[in-house]
Amino acid sequence: MRIIVDRDRCTGQAMCESIAADLFEVNDDGELELKASTVPDGRLGDVQEAVACCPNEALRLVP
């Protein structure tokens, strides 16, 4: 599965980073950087939680 960020919706609140800091990082400019574009093996649950917790619905998963 791929992780997609809607940059128009993302406001850099870092909820995703707090759940999976090894996959998501908000840089000094407040922009989200994906450390992986696909979900690593064994991490689907964490990524699904990060997607669900995004207050702006800026994250989604696609096959």
From TrEMBL:
The keyword ATP-binding does not apply. Pfam families: Fer4_15. Keywords: 3Fe-4S, Electron transport, Iron, Iron-sulfur, Metal-binding, Transport. GO terms for molecular function: 3 iron, 4 sulfur cluster binding; metal ion binding. The lineage of its organism: Bacteria, Bacillati, Actinomycetota, Actinomycetes, Pseudonocardiales. This is Ferredoxin. Its cofactor is [3Fe-4S] cluster.
